Amino acid sequence: MTDKTHSKTDHTSLITELATAGRLAQRKLARATDAEKADGLRAAAKVIRADAAAILAANEKDMDAGRANGLTGALLDRLKLDEDRLEAIACAIENVASLPDPVGEVIDSRTSPSGFGLERVRIPIGLIGIIYESRPNVTADAAALCLRSGNAALLRGGSEAIHSNRALHAAFTKGLAEVGLPEKAIQLMPTQDREAVGAMLKAAGLVDMIVPRGGKGLVARVQQDARVPVLAHLDGICHTYIHADANPDMAREIAVNAKMRRTGICGAMETLLIDANFPAGESVLAAIADAGCELRGDDRAQKLDSRVKTATSEDWDTEYLDAILAVSVVDDIDGAMEHIAAHSSGHTEAIITDSDDAASRFLGEVDSAIVMHNASTQFADGGEFGLGAEIGIATGRLHARGPVALEGLTTYKWQVKGSGQARP
Amino acid sequence: MTDKTHSKTDHTSLITELATAGRLAQRKLARATDAEKADGLRAAAKVIRADAAAILAANEKDMDAGRANGLTGALLDRLKLDEDRLEAIACAIENVASLPDPVGEVIDSRTSPSGFGLERVRIPIGLIGIIYESRPNVTADAAALCLRSGNAALLRGGSEAIHSNRALHAAFTKGLAEVGLPEKAIQLMPTQDREAVGAMLKAAGLVDMIVPRGGKGLVARVQQDARVPVLAHLDGICHTYIHADANPDMAREIAVNAKMRRTGICGAMETLLIDANFPAGESVLAAIADAGCELRGDDRAQKLDSRVKTATSEDWDTEYLDAILAVSVVDDIDGAMEHIAAHSSGHTEAIITDSDDAASRFLGEVDSAIVMHNASTQFADGGEFGLGAEIGIATGRLHARGPVALEGLTTYKWQVKGSGQARP
């Protein structure tokens, strides 16, 4: 497989060809049992372990190219595979194999007014396009989740990881073939041409859903250009509201954790809202500042700690992904919810309070994918939610919201079980 | 309210203004209880009855204009309101009021690995755009379903029904106001400019979902131009497969019903697949032809009845919505499923058989929104499924498939109930 330059027509026909092969493989995969799919994943993990030397050699090529191209240390670290990371990839595939198969689950069951049986049954979505950046583990993670849920995948990873991705993909599909599952269920885009990605994003009817995995630039581009439904989140501007009746120790511990545990994840708190009647605002801000976080706040926040810099209007709409926090003092829960309605990205918001009434109003009225009471927004994660593994976090309104795991990779059909009914 | 010609910028700002008002009203509506929403609908029905004279006078204006513009009898009939039809509209609203409120339903409930409670709770989607043609009853039906599920609606009906729609909309929102619900929750587009529809279709982030209700031309245009998710079906190319082990009497009765009960609905059978080993193909085709249906078939179908004309390749992909049926004789269930995979529009397919194995394979492997065993495809309808009322039938893969009723007008959020958890 080598990269070629294709014309626009070529890209469209390439995607048509790949999608047609993927859809055909998916129809076979849809007939596979729970056990067959689990076996396929375990076989894939085994081949990845067996072919470790080849995969690591391929990764070394990417690392060499990355160093030659002047990739930053952080990017090189994302790209790098070693024995431990490869073992983690194999274990993650085995973990997905051990998750319950969502396909075939009966969502509901009823008898129609005219007496036939009706069941809604979970089925795979079809062919899912995954567009990602430099982390080669996504090749295996996304392939495993799609396969577990009976979907075909068309993977398009970053150019800097091309050799690693090809090696991982080859090992993964070799595992599938060993147990008789269709290799074409998991395809890797054979070219890195950007125009092929464009054709994929426009392939409505051929590709059923696109999941972009990567930075904001990638997600924004995909959302902008796609004619295929996209499951994603663009921003994680997560708020924590410390209510007047919050326990001060809990508020401090959760606020520091929500901001500082890992600042670079989408569930990290970006704005802290402090109720004007919360008595311990000073100690909360001091703890966050002491942990090494820059604070930017409004007038009232600045009165709570001298280290609070003046926030500009941009700060309320910024996902820092860094040790920076916007802080606003709000009059009451209505003020907090107004602020959230105006500035939230719909990802995750939390209230800290000992008042059940306040918690109930906040959880009921705040309209984000995840709303939390007395917990750190850093828990916004499929694994932490007990879903096993996630394909991503979605902030759209339709289909699936919040952490999207195997169930979010399914749809349903209606099965009618009649006994000869004709409609009067 | 008069129609004005707007520039492109004007249309975008008009939609922004309407959507902003609608979203604000929706936030209020989201806090309304089940009983308050039901009361609002009952009040709307009452005002429609009380204002019948004004609504019928408005409808008479539309009818006059329709006659002057040379609308066909069928179109005039769709447009027409009278006492009985208005009463049916009021009853339909009351029926929606009596349906269970989907909002607040806990979809699932679990404890996370780190010990916090997790619930997925149904919530409204937000602001839903409804684009429809000449039937004024859609104004009330769609408004009622959106309101019942806590959604705001932006309605855009056909120009030929403008006076009827305005009168119905005025009565409906008067009812909402009487019980203190926000009138702006249900808005009617104040202009009939096509460009305003275009702006609505592109208002991603302001309008959450578009439901087109009308003919194929309307749906295709909406699907083509929308950047907002669309819930719809374009075609209903429904198949019935008569398996070798079908009961001949049942097969005949269901086939005649599936085609001829009403030929113009999306659930009408358009293609009949007869197993080569089914012994009574002649009698089934004779019954359909005797009922006044034109038959177009392949060689083997032509051998079963001399009235079968030669089908062209187009016939397998045509939604006739008329007394015409495509007929193919297939070798076996695999042949039937191959034909369906190649030509189905993903709406509804049925198998007639006494074999549980064949039924189970067909229901399992055919990938349409609705799959049926021993029943007429004409049952493909939310009311017949016991869902109360439907906003439409969807053939897409995501969010909701088949008959879409109140549940399909909701999404969910995750509610986390912690006790001070910080993520390790």
UniProtKB/TrEMBL annotation, chains A, B:
<dbReference type="InterPro" id="IPR015590">
    <property type="entry name" value="Aldehyde_DH_dom"/>
</dbReference>
<comment type="function">
    <text>Catalyzes the NADPH-dependent reduction of L-glutamate 5-phosphate into L-glutamate 5-semialdehyde and phosphate. The product spontaneously undergoes cyclization to form 1-pyrroline-5-carboxylate.</text>
</comment>
<keyword id="KW-0641">Proline biosynthesis</keyword>
<keyword id="KW-0028">Amino-acid biosynthesis</keyword>
<keyword id="KW-0521">NADP</keyword>
<dbReference type="GO" id="GO:0050661">
    <property type="term" value="F:NADP binding"/>
</dbReference>
<protein>
    <recommendedName>
        <fullName>Gamma-glutamyl phosphate reductase</fullName>
        <ecNumber>1.2.1.41</ecNumber>
    </recommendedName>
</protein>
<dbReference type="GO" id="GO:0005737">
    <property type="term" value="C:cytoplasm"/>
</dbReference>
<dbReference type="GO" id="GO:0004350">
    <property type="term" value="F:glutamate-5-semialdehyde dehydrogenase activity"/>
</dbReference>
<dbReference type="InterPro" id="IPR000965">
    <property type="entry name" value="GPR_dom"/>
</dbReference>
<dbReference type="InterPro" id="IPR016163">
    <property type="entry name" value="Ald_DH_C"/>
</dbReference>
<dbReference type="InterPro" id="IPR012134">
    <property type="entry name" value="Glu-5-SA_DH"/>
</dbReference>
<dbReference type="InterPro" id="IPR020593">
    <property type="entry name" value="G-glutamylP_reductase_CS"/>
</dbReference>
<dbReference type="InterPro" id="IPR016162">
    <property type="entry name" value="Ald_DH_N"/>
</dbReference>
<comment type="pathway">
    <text>Amino-acid biosynthesis; L-proline biosynthesis; L-glutamate 5-semialdehyde from L-glutamate: step 2/2.</text>
</comment>
<dbReference type="InterPro" id="IPR016161">
    <property type="entry name" value="Ald_DH/histidinol_DH"/>
</dbReference>
<keyword id="KW-0963">Cytoplasm</keyword>
<feature type="domain" description="Aldehyde dehydrogenase">
    <location>
        <begin position="18"/>
        <end position="277"/>
    </location>
</feature>
<keyword id="KW-0560">Oxidoreductase</keyword>
<comment type="similarity">
    <text>Belongs to the gamma-glutamyl phosphate reductase family.</text>
</comment>
<dbReference type="GO" id="GO:0055129">
    <property type="term" value="P:L-proline biosynthetic process"/>
</dbReference>
<dbReference type="Pfam" id="PF00171">
    <property type="entry name" value="Aldedh"/>
</dbReference>
